[in-house]
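REVIEWER CHECKLIST
Item 1: Sequence provided? yes
Item 2: Single chain? yes
Item 3: Sequence as submitted:
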Amino acid sequence: NSLPFFHAIIRLSMVITHHGGQCFKVTFGDLTLVFDPVSKKGTLPAVRFGADIALVSRNHPDMNGVEEISFGGKEPFVISGPGEYEHSGVTVQGFLTKSEYGLGKGQEEAMNTVYAVSLEGMTLVHLGAMNDPMLSQEAREAIDEIDVLFLPVGGDGVLDAAKAAKLAVTLEPRVIIPMHWDGMGEPKALDAYLKEEGGTAEKVDKLTLKKKDAAEKDGAIIVITS
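Item 4: Structure as written out by the authors:
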């Protein structure tokens, strides 16, 4: 019985919106997934919408606002660390990396999780608050073709413009969505990153994408305003 429904899902477009910092909402059909929701204790305005799946890369109020997306009858399935997960037909792999964002007193580094999410025949990779310009061997071997890469570019404890650009070259994504420049990160971080990449980017208020759209792109940089 689920097969026709699955095929219907495949034909739907994925819609990605940006909610500041590293927070992105991804919807397709009735399913809503969110990366790094901002909490009420965060430095950015908190999010307020319902989600089915929440992925938290760094345990920090700017990225761990799970309680803000229990809304409208939705209670999210929360993923907040490395491992393999499956929920509502979505497959997620989390890989351990390091971050220096928002460290407490005496802290030298914090845990960050990079997520590879397979849905609608596409692979989305969200690097979280990563500050190491190299992915682990395990992650490189597990992540094949990347359709959409959410790439921190802001410095200030995460990858800066130069390191972000270098990492993006090695990962060869079809679409790059810069993050950690809106409401956080160093001043003019996005401009610095775009300069590293040659200055060309498409700016949209939301990104609507199908598999065939992504397949036609080769390292396209798309800035989603929030």
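Item 5: Key structural point noted by reviewer: The radius of gyration is 16 Å.
Item 6: Recommendation: ____
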